[in-house]
C-alpha cells in the first residue's frame, strides 16, 4: 500500500512508511478487543453472542462516538493477517453466531486478504459493521466474502455530517456504499432466528436531530426495496463520552428525549420499514464495551 486511497478521505499517505492519514493507522492491522458480544440486534447476537472484533482507529471519527478510546485514541495492538484468521476461527470455536468486523474500513484490504484465506473454514456468517463512509471499489474487494452488512446511515444533512464527522459528502458516499452492499448480499435471509445474509441499516437518533433522522428514514424507504432490508433505529446515544471529551457542541451534552425517539420510531413504522427499535433504557454507558 504505497499510497492509501482505501476510503473516501483519499489521504494518499504512505502507511507502510509510517505516514498517518485521517484514520491514524499504519500498515498493520490493529485491534482493541475481540469477544462474544450480546448487545447487537437479536438476529445478530442470537443466544451465544456475536463474535466481534473491534479494529483500532476510524476513518470517520464522529464527535459523539461511544468507542472513542479506540476510534479517536490509538488503543489497540498490532496483529498479522494470519493472527486475524486465527482469531476468527477461535471466535467460531467459542460458539459465536457470526464474525462481526467492527469499524473495519481502514483495514479492508487486509481483511479481504484474511477472509480469502479463512472463509472456507468458517461455517458462520461474516458481518461487516461499518459507518458506510466507504468507497464502492473497496467494498468490491469483499464481494463474496461478507454475508451480512451492518451499515450506518448517520445523516441526511451535509451540514450535520460536516459538523459531527468532518465529512460533508457523507450522504452521497453512504448511499452509493449501501447500494453496493445490497447488491452483494441481496434480500435478508433468517434461519432459526439468526440472520444469515442481507443488510440491517442502522440509524442512531441524536439530540436535537429528530428531523434529520426522519429524513434519513424517508430516504432509505425511497432507495431500497423495503421488504428486502431491515432497519435498526437506535436510542442508545449516551452523552458521557462527548462530555468527557469536552465537546464544543452543547446539544451533545444530553441524552435524547422520549419525544425525539418516539417521533422517529413512529415515522419508521408509518413508512413500513421493518426492523428493530431499542428500549430507551439502552442509553447508558453500561452497554459500551470496556476497552
Ligand atoms: S484508510 Fe486511512 S489513510 Fe487511507 S484514505 Fe482512509 S483515512 Fe486515509
The residue ranges in which pLDDT falls below 50 over 5 or more consecutive positions are none
Pattern of helices and strands: EHEHEHEHEHEHHEEHEHHE
> How many separate domains?
1
Q: Quick check: average pLDDT?
A: 94
Examine the coordinates and then state which fold CATH places here, giving the name of the CATH topology: TIM Barrel
The largest sheet is: 10 strands, mixed
CATH homologous superfamily annotation:
Aldolase class I
Gyration radius, in Å: 18 Å
- Estimate the helix proportion, in percent: 25-40%
Shape: globular
Strands, count: 10
Any guess at the CATH architecture?
Alpha-Beta Barrel
Ions, cofactors, ligands: which are bound?
iron/sulfur cluster
Count of individual helical segments: 10
The fraction of residues assigned to DSSP E strands is 15-25%
CATH class placement: Alpha Beta
- First and last CA, distance: 29 Å
Can you describe what's shown?
There is one protein chain. This protein is an alpha/beta fold. It has one domain: Alpha-Beta Barrel (TIM Barrel). The protein is built from 10 helices and 10 strands. The protein has helices at 42-45, 68-71, 81-93, 108-118, 136-140, 158-165, 170-185, 210-223, 240-244, 258-270, and strands at 29-37, 50-55, 77-79, 99-102, 126-130, 148-151, 189-191, 194-204, 230-234, 275-277. Strands 1, 2, 3, 4, 5, 6, 7, 8, 9 and 10 form a 10-stranded mixed β-sheet that branches. α5 links the parallel β5 (126-130) and β6. α3 (81-93) packs across α4 (108-118) and α8 runs parallel beside α10. The longest helix has 16 residues, at 170-185. The relative contact order is 0.13.
Amino acid at each position: 500500500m504505497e499510497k492509501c486511497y482505501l476510503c473516501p478521505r483519499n489521504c494518499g499517505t504512505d502507511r507502510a512508511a509510517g505516514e498517518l492519514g485521517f484514520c491514524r493507522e499504519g500498515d498493520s492491522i490493529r485491534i482493541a478487543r475481540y469477544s462474544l458480544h450480546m448487545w447487537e440486534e437479536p438476529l445478530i447476537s442470537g443466544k451465544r453472542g456475536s463474535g466481534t472484533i473491534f479494529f483500532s482507529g476510524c476513518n470517520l471519527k464522529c464527535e459523539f462516538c461511544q468507542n472513542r478510546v479506540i476510534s479517536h485514541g490509538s488503543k489497540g495492538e498490532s496483529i498479522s493477517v494470519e493472527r486475524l484468521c486465527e482469531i476468527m476461527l477461535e471466535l467460531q470455536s467459542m460458539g459465536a453466531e457470526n464474525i462481526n468486523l467492527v469499524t473495519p474500513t481502514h483495514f479492508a484490504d487486509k481483511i479481504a486478504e484474511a477472509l480469502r484465506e479463512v472463509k472456507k473454514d468458517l461455517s458462520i456468517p461474516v458481518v461487516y459493521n461499518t459507518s458506510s463512509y466507504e468507497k464502492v471499489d473497496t467494498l468490491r474487494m469483499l464481494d463474496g466474502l461478507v454475508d451480512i452488512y451492518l451499515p450506518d446511515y448517520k445523516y441526511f444533512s451535509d451540514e450535520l455530517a460536516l459538523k459531527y464527522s468532518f465529512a460533508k459528502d457523507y450522504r452521497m458516499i453512504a448511499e452509493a456504499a449501501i447500494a453496493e452492499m445490497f447488491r452483494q448480499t441481496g434480500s435478508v435471509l433468517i434461519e432459526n432466528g439468526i440472520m444469515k445474509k442481507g443488510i440491517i441499516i442502522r440509524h442512531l437518533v441524536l439530540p436535537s436531530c429528530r428531523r434529520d433522522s426522519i429524513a434519513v428514514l424517508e430516504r432509505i424507504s425511497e432507495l431500497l426495496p423495503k421488504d428486502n432490508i431491515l432497519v435498526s433505529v437506535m436510542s442508545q446515544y449516551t452523552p458521557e463520552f462527548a462530555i468527557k471529551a469536552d465537546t464544543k457542541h452543547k446539544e451533545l451534552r444530553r441524552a435524547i428525549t422520549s419525544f425525539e425517539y418516539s417521533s422517529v420510531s413512529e415515522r419508521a413504522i408509518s413508512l413500513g420499514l421493518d426492523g428493530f427499535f431499542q428500549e430507551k433504557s439502552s442509553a447508558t454507558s453500561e452497554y459500551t464495551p470496556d476497552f
